[in-house]
Amino acid sequence: MNLVNKGCLIAVIVGMWGCSTVAQVAQLPDASQQAQLLQAKQGAVVTLENLLSTDISKIDYNKTILPGPQFIISDDPEYIRLPEAMVLREQVQPGAVRLYVYNVNGVKEPHQMERKITALIRNTGNYEMSIRMLRYSSQPASKNYFQVGKQGLADFFASQPSETVRKVAPGGLLAIDEELETQAVKYDELVHGFYEFVIDQPAEISVLQTAVDTPSEVAYARIDSVVPNSHVNAGRGLFGVSNYRISNTEPLDTKDGIAQLIVADGSDDPWITGTVGEAQEPARNAGNYGVLYDVKLKWKSSDGKGLALVTWNSRSADNQWCGGMGLTMVMDNGVHPAGIVQLPSDRLITKAAPEAIVVQVYKPAPEGEEQEIRFTYSPPGASCLPTPLVLIPIDVD
User: Which domain holds residue 357?
Assistant: First the structure.
């Protein structure tokens, strides 16, 4: 996964660029830009010359931990170089579990070869275990990481709890995602699985790579160790935080101009921490990938303007990995209907300013009463972070 460029953090977070230490007041959109924002379809890319920058004033917010499942991420190593290897093994307790698998077939030696990357659960309890899927997202292995990341989030948000209950005997092993068991993964292809399930016995979660025709239980039995973690990429491990509530400390007012919400940056919004492996070494999820943010922003209009919510790729100049950005969000109702929206919706990615993606447009209340913007955000896999969420005052009929 692509992470925040830590050399850019100060500029992004405190609103300074170069030697400046004061956030600049961003200009408002001109008539042509306002027309683009109003006429564009939801998720479409528009061109906003000289309007977007990392200097835009930040929205101050409170962050609250919400109840959520035990959370495991597998992204260290991201590229699995050994033909057969286990890259994650964590213990979980009865209850809800969220698992994010983000691994690539990286085998080069003795030659490139097709592999299988799969996630397994072993019942470590004394009684038969029941497992039921609450949310499920599994993408075909692909070299198109942006598409996999966008669609993976969209499918996760759209999924519904399954009524199917699978059983695992004490000591037994089960594939969490049966699709991965038969999927042939070519060199450099990404396996992207995002799951939430509930169990009633303690269990071990593992992720391994092996030959496509090798039964997973056979590979599991003969692999005697886990590939050492390198503490790079997003990382891996078990985390106690999986959901956040974000709410602004003071209502936004359109008269105050453009403002941006920055989460998942590693500074104002630190990475979640946990443990990795049997030794329970310290771990972090550098990117908060897989974490769900329930965002509620209060706003009002003292000048009769509405708001356009956009996002853009503020990281495009950092390196070759940050040249594109794509994400998926669950939006509330506005000028566009509520629902799941892939961003952008009219192409795979947005590249760089002056490109911006129209996420939603909001009309002012008749008497300027306070309103609330609500959406669900999760840091998008394969995209560099943060992904600024920018609120722009505009005239809305």
Answer: 6-66+242-394
Shared domain check, 356 and 295: yes
Average confidence (pLDDT) over 201-214? 98
Length of the chain in terms of residues written: 397
Using only C-alpha atoms, what is the Rg of the chain? 22
Average pLDDT, the chain: 93
Which tokens sit at 278? 């049997």
**How far does CA 78 lie from the centroid of its chain?**
16
Q: Is residue 304 domain-resident? A: yes
Nearest to 84 by CA among 224, 231, 205, 179: 224
Shared-domain flag, residues 134 and 204: yes
- What confidence score (pLDDT) does residue 350 get? 96
Q: How many CA atoms lie within 13 A of 374 on its CB side?
A: 9
DSSP sequence for 126-152? SSPEEEEEEEEEE---BS-HHHHHHHH
**Structure-block tokens of residue 133:** 């899927």
Q: Does pTM top 0.90 for this prediction?
A: yes
Residues 192 and 141: their CA atoms lie apart, in Å, by 7
Q: Is 1 domain-assigned?
A: no
> Domain boundary at 215, 239, 263, which?
239
Rounded Cα–Cα distance for residues 263 and 8 (Å) = 14
Establish if 340 belongs to a structural domain: yes
Picking from 216, 239, 262, the residue at the C-terminal end of a domain is 239
DSSP state letter for 139: -
- What's the start-to-end Cα distance of the chain, in Å? 41
Q: Which residue, 42, 58, 50, is CA-closest to 10?
A: 58
How deeply is 60 buried, as exposed, middle or buried, from its count of CB atoms within 10 A (0-12, 13-18, 19+)? exposed
**How does pLDDT run across 63-111, given as a tens digit for each residue?**
999 999 999 999 999 999 999 999 999 999 999 999 999 999 999 999 9
Q: Give the Cα separation of 246 and 269 in Å (integer).
A: 10
Q: CB-hemisphere CA count at 13 Å for 233?
A: 20
Query: Do 86 and 218 share a structural domain?
Result: yes
Same domain, 76 and 150: yes
Q: What is the pLDDT of residue 2?
A: 60
Same domain, 116 and 260: no
Q: Coil, strand or helix: which one is 145?
A: helix
SS3 category, 343? strand
